[in-house]
Amino acid sequence: MKNDPKRKGKIKKKIIGILLLVLVAGIAIFLQMSKIKSITVVGCERYSKEEIKDILKADTKYNNSLYLYLKYKYGKPKDVPFIEYMDVQLTSINTLKVHVYEKAIFGCIKYLGDYMYFDKDGIIVDSSNERYEGIPIVTGLSFNEMILTKKLAIQKDKLFDVIKDLTRLIHKYEITIDTIQFESDDEVVMYNDDIKILLGKRDMYDETVAELKNMLPNIEGKKGILHMEDFTTGKKTYFEITK
After folding, report:
1. 117: burial class by Cβ within 10 Å (0-12, 13-18, 19+)?
2. Tens digits of per-residue pLDDT, 141-174?
């Protein structure tokens, strides 16, 4: 009786069953305990913190903090426009801290109905059928093709240096520019709402854009042409009102 194999088999099955129940209960308790309670977001400008939280929660299963942490640490997270990557840190069993590293977007070009966004090196980093606020569209360029993740190939490489210089200054002086347009002679025209700004063609635009920063508040809400093509320090510009 002591060596009854059937009895030993039943006891073994009971032990395994109990262990499985304990394991399942443990997993259930852990999943319940590790449900996301809070996410702290830092480093984002193009998206709001709430938008980043919604993106992360939509990219996880069971609203689980550990799953989300492991996915962003070792897996393949969801691609998000204008974001290089997100560093997700597990600060407790149910709280996360997320550092958002955004792609530096310098401008966009409309191509085949989409907006192609490029970085400081002229690399096409994203495309969308939406025009994003705060990013100037560049017009007047000639190109054969545009390929995502490839460098923007335009008719004159030096024009891209002009684009970089202008967008740098626009960001520096916090000026709202809708469009940067290149004329046939490479002269630059920019648009701020109903104001057409003639910058001309020059090697450096630092002084011109600095002066533009001072002038725009005086003509805000008006419609016309701001003549800065011959601007030099100490020389006045003039604003031509149009209907």
Report:
1. buried
2. 887 778 888 888 776 777 888 888 898 899 889 8
Structure tokens, 32:
């319940």
Q: Cα(193)–Cα(60) distance, rounded to whole angstroms?
A: 41
**Angstrom distance (rounded) from CA 67 to CA 73:** 10
Query: What value does the CA radius of gyration of the chain take, rounded to a whole number of Å?
Result: 29
Residues 188/166, Cβ–Cβ less than 8 Å:
yes
Give CA–CA dist 174/171, Å, rounded: 5
Q: How many CB atoms lie within 10 A of CB 52?
A: 21
Alpha-carbon distances, residue 46 vs 20, 85, 142 (angstroms): 48, 14, 29
8 Å CB contact between 59 and 77 = yes
- pTM of the complete model: 0.66
